[in-house]
Amino acid sequence: MRILIVEDDAEAGAAMVRGLTEAGHQVTHVADGALGLKAASGGGFDVLVVDRMTPNMDGLTMVETLRRAGDQTPVLFLSALGEIEDRVTGLKAGGDDYLVKPYAFAELIARVEALARRRETGSVQTVLRVGELEMDLIGRTVRREGREIDLQPREFQLLEFLMRHAGQSVTRTMLLEKVWEYHFDPQTNVIDVHVSRLRSKIDKGFDRPMLLTVRGAGYRLEA
Question: How do 147-149 and 211-214 pair as beta strands?
Fold first, then answer.
């Protein structure tokens, strides 16, 4: 996925570039709204991440200009302005989502990827597929090469998250926040235990492993 970041804070911009690149995305970063408008007008981006307060042209004006030109690329606004009226202003200017600073990086990634999925599908996704692995979100079933795999509810949630981020390194922090809904580290091996159980179910008896450990980063589901 190609992402354009419009952020004048050099440190914050570099952190986003690094994190999104590590998550498997192609990232372009510019430091002001005028440059952002020029880059976005060229097309080719799947999602725009735009800070509201940028030099030369503020983020609101930039997005409003794009919308008037017919550009419907999904936009996630970032801002320290978090009051309801601030959020409403951002959405009315053409934003699709609004994230208040400071934020958890895992949430930024999840929101960006959700915007991209919404654009790609235009409808609710009910079946996930990664290689020969298939998950039916309605029937709550999982199959690999047609063979049904019995998963416990938490294992199902864990696999769903990994499938939605297939090919990307998923950190322990992301799993704690999105699967267990912990916004702190409980200092337990709960993730390791569940990943081990899940790996034994989806990989055992098959020619090659799909659930990989990424040393120093986390885990990755490979097609």
Answer: unpaired
3-state secondary structure of 141: strand
Alpha-carbon distance of 39 to 43, in angstroms, equals: 7
Domain at 2-121, CATH class: alpha beta
Q: Where are the domains of the chain?
A: 2-121, 127-221
**By three-state DSSP, how is residue 8 classified?**
coil
pLDDT one-digit tens code per residue, 6-61: 999 999 999 999 999 988 889 999 999 999 999 998 778 989 999 999 999 999 99
99-117 core/surface letters (b: 16 or more CB in 10 A; e: else): beeeeebbebbbbbbbbbe
User: Does CATH place domain 127-221 in 1.10.10.10?
Assistant: yes
92, 160 contact by CB (below 8 A): no
CB of 29 closer than 8 Å to CB of 7: yes
Give the Cα-Cα-Cα angle 203, 204, 206 (nearest 5 degrees).
Answer: 70
Burial class (CB in 10 A: 0-12, 13-18, 19+), 154: middle
Q: In this predicted model, what pLDDT tens digit does every residue of 114-141 receive, in sequence order? A: 888 776 655 455 788 888 999 988 788 9
